[in-house]
Design brief:
InterPro entries: GHMP_kinase_C_dom (IPR013750), GHMP_kinase_C_sf (IPR036554), GHMP_kinase_N_dom (IPR006204), IspE (IPR004424), Ribosomal_Su5_D2-typ_SF (IPR020568), Ribsml_uS5_D2-typ_fold_subgr (IPR014721). The chain is α+β, with helices and mostly antiparallel strands and 312 residues long. The chain is built from nine helices and twelve strands. The structure holds 4-diphosphocytidyl-2-C-methyl-D-erythritol 2-phosphate (SUD) and adenosine-5'-diphosphate.
Length: 312
């Protein structure tokens, strides 16, 4: 049946992935308070699902859809980034009378450095665009996303991509690997601005923070290239470890549990351990649990960016 014969949907559900930064180089703080970045993002298999339906007024509700997800900290008012995304799309198209009810099923831990809020913003943009048949161009969605947060454009694109500017300029890269990670969650949050603030005090960004071309080659040709773990790096790690010394112990434990490498995810406090394959990842997670690190998930990447999973 041609798309033109289909009735308009009553609801649309869009799935958006968590991100990890497998490389995060940070420069000197800019006059606008943001730091220039060179990062390699990878979308991994933890997801938020966002469902939108037409409504008289904006509303948002969030339920947990993951064993380690606690949604108490997610705002249920206009400060939720999903509502901000919806309003930005409405303003872009000058549709001032439109509003929606947004329901978030959260599989991405909150304030974990995995950009769950950005995933919700990206999912809401795509879902409302389809619900209202707006036909927004990809470049326009990316530009609206960039205004909402530095990580939002990547949640739209997914896969593996470089991020430059303040992280919002996203360029897909060829990634022929299937990478397995053990994600180690933290009981306490760690605020992104405080980690960047500690970075300014400790390091300041006065160094070469560019992505090495050999890293992109290791992603393009994982079988014959150098091992990816040589290139895994996060400039914010010292700052996060300074604020949260317990995170360094997680990295050490992961290496003792046979991870190929361990590093901070984004601005933390989530930690990442690279595994050789799915079985090794599960084995590493099991060994970490024996040491008391039982809030973990085994994930793989790269996975797709925000995409429709259901029309109601
Ligand atoms: C560190 C990273 C790495 O991908 O992600 P997270 O681990 O937090 O998810 C990002 O830089 C976070 O991006 P995001 O969480 O979208 O940040 P934004 O909402 O745009 O900014 C929040 C705050 O972080 C700081 N910030 C963010 C991005 C950047 N390039 N420089 C900064 O200094 C600023 O203090 C800013 O006010
Ligand atoms: N839809 C949302 N999901 C999660 N957090 C949100 C959302 N909207 C606003 N927030 C606020 O943003 C903060 C950081 O969110 P999140 O994206 O989960 O973490 P991070 O920036 O570490 O990746 C939360 O503590 C919460 O107060």
């Amino acid at each position: 049946m041609s798309a033109a014969l289909l009735p308009d949907p009553i609801s649309v559900t869009v799935r958006a992935p968590a991100k990890i930064n497998i490389y995060l180089g940070v420069g000197k703080v800019r006059p606008d308070g943001f730091h220039p970045l060179e990062t390699v993002y990878q979308a991994v298999s933890l997801y938020d699902d966002v469902t939108v339906t037409d409504a008289e007024e904006w509303s948002v509700s969030t339920i947990a859809d993951g064993v380690h997800v606690e949604v108490r900290e997610v705002p249920d008012d206009d400060s939720n980034i999903a509502i901000r995304a919806g309003k930005a799309l409405v303003a872009h198209h000058r549709l001032d009378d439109r509003a929606a009810a947004i329901q978030i099923n959260k599989g991405i831990p909150v304030a974990g450095g995995m950009a769950g809020g950005s995933a919700d913003a990206a999912a809401t943009l795509v879902a409302l665009d389809r619900l209202w048949s707006l036909g927004t161009a990809d470049e326009e969605l990316l530009a609206i996303g960039a205004e909402l947060g530095s990580d939002v454009p990547f949640a739209l694109v997914g896969g593996t991509a470089t991020g430059t500017g303040r992280g919002e300029v996203v360029t897909p890269v060829e990634d022929n690997g299937s990478w397995w990670w053990v994600v180690v969650f933290s009981d306490d949050g760690l605020s992104t601005p405080s980690v960047y603030g500690a970075y300014d005090l400790l390091e300041g960004g006065d160094h070469d923070y560019r992505i090495r071309p050999q890293m992109l080659e290791a992603l393009r040709a994982p079988a014959n290239g150098e091992h990816l773990q040589v290139f895994l790096y996060n400039d914010l790690e010292d700052a996060a470890f300074y604020l949260r010394p317990d995170l360094q112990a997680v990295a050490e434990a992961a290496l003792e549990c046979q991870a190929s490498y361990a590093l901070l995810s984004g601005s933390g406090p989530t930690m990442l351990a690279l595994a050789a394959d799915a079985d090794s990842a599960r084995a590493i997670a099991g060994r970490l649990a024996e040491r008391g690190y039982d809030r973990t998930a085994v994930v793989h990447g790269p996975v797709a960016g925000a995409h429709v999973v259901a029309y109601g």
